[in-house]
Design brief:
Blueprint lengths: L1 H42 L7 H23 L14 H36 L11 H31 L1
Length: 166
């Protein structure tokens, strides 16, 4: 039934979030190594050409790949000055509305970034400094937002079932 599907969906979501976090961690290490190496090379007046460009691409991947995991752990900032005063049922309704709206919003963002990536791919556009293809980084950002949407979908469904239990 629904509970079995949710377990499967949660297992898939957990796998995707962990995989993206591992890749994001590798990207952070690469980003830090490149930035540090570039600073050291600047001391000797031989900076790495295109370091800013690569750091930007890797930074986008790091941030996008951390979105779903951060949502899953609820590690984002929450301002609950008003909602603390509401009843648990009202808070669940507000959470449900919030999850639904943000899930749709981030799904649209993922889709539009993907469409943009396709345009860049088809045009053969290259990065400005190093002249490398960069549409894979755009697709990574789209994937990060898609996994965030999946994570929020799971939160939304959980909120719906909490409401039905009462």
């Amino acid at each position: 039934g629904v509970e079995e599907r949710m377990k499967y969906l949660e297992a898939l979501n957990n796998f995707l979030n962990k995989a993206l976090m591992v890749i994001g961690g590798i990207a952070v290490l690469a980003l830090m190594s490149l930035a540090t190496g570039n600073v050291v090379l600047r001391i000797f007046h031989i900076p790495f050409r295109g370091a800013y460009e690569i750091v930007s691409f890797l930074g986008a991947v790091v941030i996008a790949f951390a979105l779903g995991y951060t949502q899953k752990r609820k590690d984002h900032i929450v301002v609950d000055i008003l909602t603390d005063k509401f009843s648990p049922k009202t808070n669940r309704v507000l959470d449900g509305i919030n999850y639904f709206v943000t899930m749709i919003f981030f799904a649209i963002i993922s889709w539009q970034i993907y469409v943009w990536g396709i345009k860049i791919w088809e045009s053969g556009e290259l990065s400005e400094t190093l002249k490398v293809i960069y549409h894979p980084f755009i697709f990574c950002v789209s994937l990060g937002f898609a996994v965030l949407s999946l994570t929020i979908l799971i939160d939304f469904v959980k909120t719906l079932f909490k409401q039905e239990e009462r």
